[in-house]
Design brief:
CATH architecture of one domain: 3-Layer(aba) Sandwich
Low-confidence stretches: 74-86, 336-391
CATH topology of one domain: Rossmann fold
Structural class: alpha/beta
Helix content: 10-25%
Distance between the termini: 28 Å
Number of helices: 10
């Protein structure tokens, strides 16, 4: 099965999905150092170093899965928490990719802060946009007005492209990663696929930093891996204590010296503290020891801190892979595609037959907009206490 990686970073989610059986068709990433890391570990020809807002998804072609971690700063507890008001909110681009490529499934990962009470309406908006990706904003609607329209839709009667969407807060430490790292995963399956989804079950035991780094020499020793370099200057002070060697680590964060809790330091039983090396940090994030992270120590720690733990990505990826493998198509195939007169990739709408030869302009599928929906007949007003049900599974 094929996949497209968005907001790829240094490739934690991508590596896990590769281990789960997916074949990558492309990576879209803006940061030059992250792109350098991707080229070191995957086919360099598949790496698109560009702003996703200007990326032409039709250049990739049809894929079975779209995956990625939209930038989390808009929802981070440590950031400004502006959500949709933050220019770094890239969920709209993830939804655009789904709308244009119509994959069988998608996987998105983000920070725990996405579930904050203050973001409840916008999170619902994200979930409903993922559920009905064909229902795009006409361009003149505020997202709150758009959300109001989305709430009026009913899943069984909606005729356009739609997905069954599930989300859950998971902790990487429950899946064999030696790190306490809570993240929200959003998984969706196209409605015609007929996939059955169950979240993978966690483990009863937790791996410690000591167990993960067992056998790795002190970075000051000779003959250590080239990315296992000692970084001096680590200090502790109230609230900045580092990660205990005999416990799972704190959440590795996208920084180096300045992370608030000293998360990127190791505290040993004798009271000594030192900064994690790049090699140690990537192992704690469950990257293979041979995986290459480009850039200086600080830049590499930033990439690693932004990454999805490989082992967690592989676990969820395998569950999605098996769900797709065991699924039975139950309706119209929304994923069929064709080219228009200009060679652009276009998709067949629900119930549309594939034309012979080149498509005429009148045959090009159109997006469903709310101004069009409004002309399809008046809706009966429902009591405010009763909202239409959607196949959205929570925690």
């Amino acid at each position: 099965m094929t996949s497209l990686e968005l907001f790829s970073g240094c490739g934690g989610l991508a590596k896990g999905l590769e281990m789960a059986g997916f074949r990558h068709q492309g990576f879209v990433e803006f940061n030059k150092w992250a792109c350098a890391s991707l080229r070191e570990n995957f086919n360099p020809a598949l790496v698109h170093e560009t702003d996703i807002r200007s990326f032409d998804f039709s250049s990739i072609g049809p894929v079975d899965l779209i995956a990625g971690g939209p930038p989390c700063q808009p929802f981070s507890l440590g950031g400004l928490a502006k959500a949709n008001n933050d220019a770094r909110d890239m969920f709209p681009q993830a939804i655009r990719a789904i709308h244009e490529l119509r994959p069988k499934a998608f996987i998105f990962e983000n920070v725990k802060g996405l579930l904050r009470k203050s973001f409840a309406d916008y999170f619902e908006y994200i979930i409903l946009r993922l559920t009905y990706p064909d229902c795009v904003n006409d361009g003149d609607l505020d997202w709150r007005a758009h959300l109001k329209h989305l709430r009026e839709l009913t899943y069984p009667s909606f005729q356009g492209l739609k997905y069954e969407v599930h989300f859950k807060l998971v902790n990487a430490v429950d899946f064999g990663v030696p790190q306490n790292r809570e993240r929200v995963f959003i998984v969706g399956f196209r409605s015609d696929i007929g996939a059955t989804w169950n979240w993978p079950k966690g483990m009863s035991t937790q791996m410690t930093v000591a167990q993960a780094l067992h056998g790795l020499a002190d970075p000051r020793a000779k003959g250590v891996p080239e990315d296992h370099v000692f970084i001096p200057g680590a200090k502790t002070y109230p609230g900045h204590t580092g990660s205990d060697y005999d416990k799972p680590s704190k959440t590795i964060k996208a920084g180096a010296h300045g992370v608030p809790g000293g998360e990127n330091m190791i505290r040993f039983p004798n009271g000594e503290v030192r900064y994690m090396t790049v090699h140690e940090a990537k192992i704690i994030q469950s990257f293979p020891p041979t995986y290459k992270i480009c850039g200086s120590w600080g830049e590499a720690l930033r990439q690693i801190g932004n990454a999805v733990p490989v082992r967690l990505a592989s676990t969820i990826g395998k569950q999605v892979f098996m769900a797709l493998k065991n699924a039975k198509t139950i309706g119209d195939d929304y994923g069929q595609y064709r080219a228009d007169n200009f060679g652009n990739l276009m998709f067949l709408e629900n119930g549309e037959s594939a034309p012979k030869g080149r498509a005429r302009s009148s045959e090009i599928p159109k997006t469903v907009s709310y101004s069009q929906l409004a002309t399809k007949g008046k809706r009966k007003r429902r009591p405010k206490s009763k909202r239409p049900s959607h196949p959205i599974a929570g925690m």
